[in-house]
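USER:
I would value a second opinion on how I read folds in token form. Give me a protein, with the fold worked out from its sequence. Write it directly below this note and I will take it from there.

ASSISTANT:
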Amino acid sequence: MSAIPSPLEEAVLELAEWAHAVGEGRATVPASTDSALDRVLANLLAVTVGAAASAAQRELVAAWRPEPGAATLFGTGLRVPVETAAWMNGVAAVAMERDEGHKESKGHPAAQSFPAVLALAESLGSSGPRTRRALLVAYEVGARLGRATDFAPDVHTHGTFGVAGAAAGCAVLLGLDASGIRTAIDAGCALPVSTSWAPVLAGSAVRDQWIGAGNTAGIAAARFAAVRPHERVSGLEPALGGRLGTVDAETLVRGLDEGEWLIESGYLKRYSACAYTHGPADAALHARSLLASSGRSLDDVQAVELVVTGKAAELTATTWTTRHGAYFSVPFAVASALVHGDVDHSRSDPDHAAALLPIASVVDVRAASDADGPLFAASGRPARLTLRLHDAPPITVDVGHPLGDSTLTPFTPSAVDGLLDAALVEVERFDRHDVLAVVEALRLERPAGAALAALA
């Protein structure tokens, strides 16, 4: 007698049946969803190629000494084994801290799953349209799992919920049925990296490796399911990955019947810094303009006070010795915005920190309380910045939510193009038009690899 499935097992099966319908082209994909996939995929490819041009990424690739293979290592001129491409492209996707994210999912669904799907699609000779459907499945499954998970307090979500998304997308490419996709998702839920915020707050780039590990694990989960399509893994019992966080079954499948696509509600980043720093950076840019219009300069600033919510209140480092130390510092993002008028990737170079430290050192960050008013009762990522000046009234700027949220504060199409340009600014061989051409080419009924190889 078979065991009665738990609510979570039933939810995973429902999600797998939906994923199978999408993967086989039996589900209607709205035009708005299709456009969102274009936007997210273009962002993923641009930031990956952009990071590949950096000295740090070139050194990492050299250390791996990759053998020849069937998948493109973007921006390097190399074709490498599938697993190497999934890992290394995943690392590059997040190395500049400019990759697309999803607030409700608490992380980055595309970076956690697309490198796996793209690498496997090349090796299998999958068509462009089938690859696009697999990417949609990967994003939606991963994003839904992230949204449904109440993560343990110290868990960093890189390489966690996205493993199941990568597994589902790869299972679609392998032609698995709903039962096989269910097992792939289940196995993916049993394979995440056991992550912590400690290395992140220490400024370590090892957290980028979690994305690579998660993508590679997603491929492994799909291959496992191809051999054992009916196996019960219990990857969500008692929690995602055993300890990362508990998952709510109802939330996992919420909106499936109503045609909800989470890929439409993500955010894009105009700063090379953690998303939790973007509200403060937006406020700093506005304050910079107000300061200039008042006839004052940064020399008049005595202190910078930030009121924030959530994890932003913990990102308080006023000095940094690595790029990642800067990425996860509200004082860095605010100082860069005030001093330079941007938070570009070049600003996080520790060799350039001297120009920012005088302002960063006077930035005080605190968590909002009830006394700070209704701004901080909203569900976004609000921030209040106050410049305390010598012999002048303070300048205060409130930001309800950072720019770039597809639903709340979307960028214009021209601004989105500008983000692609910014991601590729250090790349000599490719530009925005090359990236967009690859995205468009994946609509054609020909092998996806023919398009993807153009960004080698």
Remarks:
- The chain has a mean pLDDT of 97.
- The first helix runs from residue 7 to 23.
- The chain has two domains: 7-270+412-455, 275-399.
